[in-house]
Amino acid sequence: MAGQQYEGQLRPRFAFARPTLRDWVLAVAVLVSAFLYFPLNHDSPNIHILTASLNGDLPVVPVFAIPYLVFLPIFWLAVAYAFATGRDFALFALSIAIAYFVSDLVYVLYPTYMPRPQHVTGFLSGLVRYVYSHDSPYNDFPSEHTGSAVLLALYLWPQGRLLRGAGLILAALVIPATMLIKQHSVAGAAGGVVLAAATWFALVYARRHLIKPARNSQ
To answer: Are 100 and 173 in contact (CB under 8 A)?
Structure first.
């Protein structure tokens, strides 16, 4: 009995699993859906600007470029972790792929543009200019940045109190950051949040109420 407890203590907490064929297919789908953002991020003859009085009232806060930039490597590290360990990777990856593919389709059918300030000054304004120089001001609606933040927070929610809090804090910083550095409009940021949450909970519902009962009946 004591030997079994000792072996349990030596067992690694983060065990890596061998990815299945399904995992590889989902990983490819995630990458394809993500990379489609770049060829679609260009001007269009029928471009739309989703402006509202609230967009103009929001100031440019350059410090929010920090969570905006830091988020991407954290997000993709989480995707890699889920792939390597197999912990809810199917749900996480399928949610990302669906949300991204839907966003890509919207970019094609309803291209959008986010007006940017011509001059950004103040502390850390160079980071904002860095973002602008590496990302064209199109594909405003829905925001894949805010959608990704929501999906990461939902994925981390059952992973323990520490990771749950980290996911919530990160989402609470990234979502307003997209608007406060003028990368996305209010509608674009909200659209990303709604799309991501709807995709995640629809898949969770399907897994609980449709997939498992079908397997049990078989």
So the answer is: no
